[in-house]
C-alpha cells in the first residue's frame, strides 16, 4: 500500500491547507494511506479523513514525505525514516525571508535526497533555471497527479 505524508507548519486557514486536505481526503477514499505532520497546533481549516501528527514523528515514517516550506524540508532532510522525499514548492519563500543565505537555499534545492515538485509551469521554469529540474508539476495538490507520483516510485 502507498503511504503518503505531507509536512506543513499547521492545519489552519490557508489556501495551501484547503487544497491539501481536500486532496488527501480524496486519496484516502481511494485507499492511499495518508497523514499530515504539522509543526504547530491550530484549529484545522476542515475535517480530515486521515491522521495528523507532530512533525517530530516524521523520523519513523517509512513512506513518501512531501515538505512544503524551508522549515519542513530541513527537518525532512535530517529524517532517516522516509523512503522518498519531496519538496513541493508552493511559493518562493526566499523572496520574503531575511535570515536565509543563498548557500542555505542552495543546500535545500540542490540536495540529492530531495526531489522538487513545482506548483505550476512558471514555478517549474524558475526552479529549473535557478536550481534543478523538478520531478513533477502538480497544480494545487491535484490528487490524481499525486497518485501518479506515488505509482512512479
Mind sketching the topology for me?
Blueprint: E1 3-8, H1 15-29, E2 33-38, E3 51-54, E4 64-67, H2 70-77, E5 84-89, H3 102-109, E6 114-118, H4 121-130, E7 136-137, H5 143-152
Parallel strand pairs: 1-2, 1-4, 2-3, 4-5, 5-6, 6-7
Describe the structure using short key phrases.
153 residues; alpha/beta; Rossmann fold; 7-stranded parallel β-sheet; 22% strand
Q: How would you describe this structure to a colleague?
A:
The protein is α/β, with parallel strands linked by helices. It has a single domain, classed as 3-Layer(aba) Sandwich (Rossmann fold), CATH 3.40.50. Helix content is 33%, strand content 22%. The chain is built from 5 helices and 7 strands; from the N terminus they run βαβββαβαβαβα. It has helices spanning 15-29, 70-77, 102-109, 121-130, 143-152; strands at 3-8, 33-38, 51-54, 64-67, 84-89, 114-118, 136-137. It has a 7-stranded parallel sheet with strand order 3-2-1-4-5-6-7, with helices on both faces. Helix 4 (121-130) links the parallel strand 6 (114-118) and strand 7. The mean pLDDT is 92.
User: Per CATH, which architecture?
Assistant: 3-Layer(aba) Sandwich
Number of helices: 5
- What's the CATH H-level homologous superfamily? Glycogen Phosphorylase B
Count of distinct structural domains: 1
Stated plainly, the CATH topology is called: Rossmann fold
CATH C-level class:
Alpha Beta
Note the run of SSEs as H and E. EHEEEHEHEHEH
Query: What fraction of residues sit in β-strands?
Result: 15-25%
Average pLDDT over all residues: 92
How widely separated are the two ends? 12 Å
Number of strands: 7
Describe the sheet with the most strands.
Answer: 7 strands, parallel
Query: Which value, in Å, is the CA radius of gyration?
Result: 14 Å
Structural class given helices, strands, pairing?
Answer: alpha/beta
- Share of helix among residues? 25-40%
Strand order of the largest sheet: 3-2-1-4-5-6-7
Amino acid at each position: 500500500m502507498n503511504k503518503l505524508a505531507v509536512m506543513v507548519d499547521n492545519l489552519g486557514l490557508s489556501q495551501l491547507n484547503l487544497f491539501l486536505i481536500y486532496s488527501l481526503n480524496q486519496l484516502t477514499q481511494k485507499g492511499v494511506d495518508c497523514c499530515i505532520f504539522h509543526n504547530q497546533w491550530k484549529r484545522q481549516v476542515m475535517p480530515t479523513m486521515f491522521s495528523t501528527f507532530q512533525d517530530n514523528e516524521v523520523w519513523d515514517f517509512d513512506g513518501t514525505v512531501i515538505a512544503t516550506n524551508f522549515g519542513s524540508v530541513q527537518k525532512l532532510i535530517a529524517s532517516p525514516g522516509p523512503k522518498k522525499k519531496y519538496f513541493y514548492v508552493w511559493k518562493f519563500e526566499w523572496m520574503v525571508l531575511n535570515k536565509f543565505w543563498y548557500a542555505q537555499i542552495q543546500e535545500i534545492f540542490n540536495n540529492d535526497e530531495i526531489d522538487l515538485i513545482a506548483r505550476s509551469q512558471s514555478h517549474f521554469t524558475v526552479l529549473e533555471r535557478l536550481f534543478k529540474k523538478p520531478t513533477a508539476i502538480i497544480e494545487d495538490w491535484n490528487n490524481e497527479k499525486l497518485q501518479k507520483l506515488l505509482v512512479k516510485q
